Amino acid sequence: MQSIAHLLQGIDEGLVDCGQRPIVVYSALWPVAKKMGVPPSIISAKIIEHLLDNYASKNTIMMPTFTGGFRGGFLDLDSEPSSTGFLSEQFRTNTSAQRTCSAFFSFAVIGPDAGHLIELRPQDAWGDGSVYHWMQIRDALFLMLGTRITHSSYIHRAEWLLRDRIPFRYVKPFSGRVKLRGAVSDLEERLFVRSLSPPARNDFRVLEAPFLQAGIVRQPIPNGGLAMVGAVDMLRVTLEVMEDDVFCCLEDSSHWKLV
To answer: Domain total for the chain?
Structure first.
C-alpha cells in the first residue's frame, strides 16, 4: 500500500529541478486517502507541511480556491470556502495563506510572489494580467494529486487565446462587491463562458494522449495519482491540438461545426 512518505517522496522527485518556479497544486484527495487507508485530514496536513517546509521559501505555492461567484451582488472571500477540494480548503485556512481577488477563480497563495498575486485585478479572468497569464510567464509547475492532468483550469487560458475562433463560448461580464482581507471593494470581471443553449460541454480528456506523447508529463509515482506538467508545455501542446481542431474538447460538436 502506498504510504504518505512514498507520496511525499514522489512529490520531491517531481520537483527536484523546479528551481524557483511557482508550484500550483490541483487535488482530489479522497481517492488518495481511500487508497492509503488514511484520513484525508492527516494526508492534507502532511502535504501542506511538506510543501511549506521544503519549498515555500523559494517557490510560491498555490492552490485553486474557486467559488460560485457573487450572491446578491456580494462575495466574502475571507470566509467563502474553496469548492475545489479538501486540500485546497485546508491550505486556504492556513494562517500564512492569502487569497487572490476573483469572484470565481481565486487561488490561495504562500511564498515569494504572494504580494504581487494578491494585487492583480485583471479585466478578463483568463486574459492578460490575470493569474493564468502570470503562470504562463513564470512557467508554473502544476502538481496533479489524485486527479487527471487535464483537470487543471489552466487549459482555459488556451481557449481564451483562441477566442476569435471559438463559437461555443462568449465573454460575459460580472460585477459586484467583494470582501477580502477585511476590506470591501467593487469588482468587475469577465469570464469566457460556455453556451447553455445549445449546451457546450467540455471533455478535456482528449488532451491526455497528446500530453503524454509530447513527453511533457512527469509521473514520479506511476499510476499513483501523482503527475506534474509545466505551464508553457501544457499551453503549447493544447494550442497545437486546438488549432488543428478547435472543437476537439467538446462532447458533442455537431451543432457548433455548422455555426
So the answer is: 1
* Interatomic CA distance for residues 133 and 92, integer angstroms: 22
At 223, the pLDDT band (50, 70, 90 cuts) reads low
Q: Which three cell numbers stand for residue 145?
A: 494529486
Crossing angle, helix 29-36 and helix 4-14, to 10 degrees?
A: 130
For residue 165, what is the DSSP state?
Answer: G
Q: Are 101 and 78 in contact (CB under 8 A)?
A: no
- pTM value > 0.70: yes
Range of the domain at 223: 4-258
> Element (H or E) spanning 219, and its range?
strand 217-221
- d(CA 258, CA 161) in angstroms, rounded, equals 22
CB atoms within 10 A of CB 89: 16
Round to whole Å and give the CA distance between 199 and 219.
34
By DSSP bridging, strand 61-64 and strand 74-76 are: unpaired
